[in-house]
Amino acid sequence: MEFGGASAVFERVFIMGNGGTGKTWLAQRIGERLGQPIIHLDDIHWEPGGYGVARCRSLRDTMVKAAAETDRWVMEGVYGELANMAFGRVTALIWIDLPEELCIANIKERGIQGGGTETQFAGLLKWVAEYRIRANNWNSFDAHARLFSAFPGPKWLLSDREAVTRFAGSLPLGIEVADE
Fold first, then answer.
1. pTM of the prediction?
2. How would you classify the pairing of strands 73-77 and 38-40?
3. In the chain, which residue ranges form alpha helices assigned H by DSSP?
């Protein structure tokens, strides 16, 4: 993969996809290779220490918009509504679209996180399994497809684990960003 003009292309990267696709893994690799901070939308959407407790919507939205206004970042998450709030600042878009079976296997492999219960974990697995059939929902295949289609800048659709790994390994190291 070639990344011409990489400093401008990768100033503000957004990674979206279903739960369990490897968004966090890829964001960490990009952040490490390019020396950029990572913004996890899960950390903004959910109350700290409150597994499954959504943050106040207005505070959440303010936090997303403030994060998007910073100069350089890698932002990742499943939340299409929050992605839409940041899209005016995104310089590169990555959509990881893996089969739900792989997503579920990835989630099972990492196990319950953040103090969740077995019931909440089962709910997460069900939610991930319904990615392609959710209707009228920002956190769905259809919503991500619309966002991806409408994005006018550089974008990549990664549809298998090997493509994700190749993408991460092909990025240039330590892109220098010119002072403005």
1. 0.90
2. parallel
3. 6-9, 23-34, 41-45, 57-68, 80-86, 100-110, 118-129, 141-150, 161-170
Q: Which two tokens stand for residue 33?
A: 């290779």
Q: Are 96 and 23 in contact (CB under 8 A)?
A: yes
Sheet holding 73-77: strands in order across? 38-40, 73-77, 12-17, 92-96, 155-158
| Cα 26 from Cα 31, distance rounded (Å) | 8
- Kindly give the parts of the chain with pLDDT less than 50: 1-5, 176-180
Task: Determine the pLDDT at residue 179.
Answer: 40
Contact predicate 14/83, CB 8 Å = yes
For residue 8, CA distances in Å to 12, 20, 50, 76 come to: 8, 29, 37, 19
Q: Is 99 helix (H, G, I), strand (E, B) or coil?
A: coil
Round to whole Å and give the CA distance between 93 and 17: 11
User: Using only C-alpha atoms, what is the Rg of the chain?
Assistant: 16
Distance from C-alpha of 5 to C-alpha of 143, rounded to nearest angstrom: 29
C-alpha–C-alpha distance, residues 162 and 140, integer Å: 23
Torsion over CA: 74, 81, 124, 43 (sign): positive
CA-to-CA distance for 101 and 116, rounded, in angstroms? 21
